[in-house]
Amino acid sequence: MTHGMRTDTYPPYLDGGGRDWRDTATRYALLPLRIFLGVTFIYAGLDKLTDGAFLKDSGAGSIGDTMRAVRDSSAIPALVDMALKSPVGFGYAMALGELAVGIGTLLGVLTRLAALGGALISLSLWLTVSWASDPYYYGNDLAYLMAWLPLVLAGAPVLSLDAAWRSRRRQRAGAMAR
Fold first, then answer.
1. How far, in whole angstroms, is CA 44 from its chain's centroid?
2. pLDDT at 15 over 50
3. Are 130 and 137 in contact (CB under 8 A)?
4. What whole-number distance in Å separates Cα of residue 144 and Cα of residue 139?
5. pLDDT higher than 90, residue 10
6. Which of 59, 70, 83, 136 is the most buried (most CB within 10 A)?
C-alpha cells in the first residue's frame, strides 16, 4: 500500500467537505488590515513630506516643537533627545520610513519586514509622543503597534508580490524535482 503526501497548504477539514466561504474568509482575513495600514502609513508619510510646517526645527506644527513638547512626558526622554539633535533629519527619516512601510505593506513586498518597520515606528511613537495619554488607550500608537503584529507573524499570504514570488519558487522547485 502506498501513501501519498499532502502537497496543499490548507489544513484538513474535519467535515470531509471542500473549502467554503469560511475558508476563503480565513485566507483573506489579513487583507483589510494590510490595506488599512498600508494606505494610512503612505498617507502619513506624504502628509509629513508635503506639510510646510512639519519639516522645520521650530514653529507651530514643526517636528522640533512637537518633540520638545513631549520630551519630559515620554517614557524614554533619551530617544527624544537623540531625535532633537537633528529634528528635520528625523522628520524626513520618519516620513520616508512611513512611506516605505506603507508601500511594502500595501503591495505585499517583504511584508514581514515592512510590518516590523511599522511596528517599530508605532512603538517609538507610543513611547514618546503618546506615552502620556491618560488613559493609555487614548493614544492610538499602541493600537497601531498591536495591529502590525499579525502582519509581522503572518506576512501577506494572498494578493501580494511575496505570495507571487513564493508561488514561482515552488513551481521552479517542482520543475527541478522532475
1. 13
2. no
3. no
4. 10
5. no
6. 83
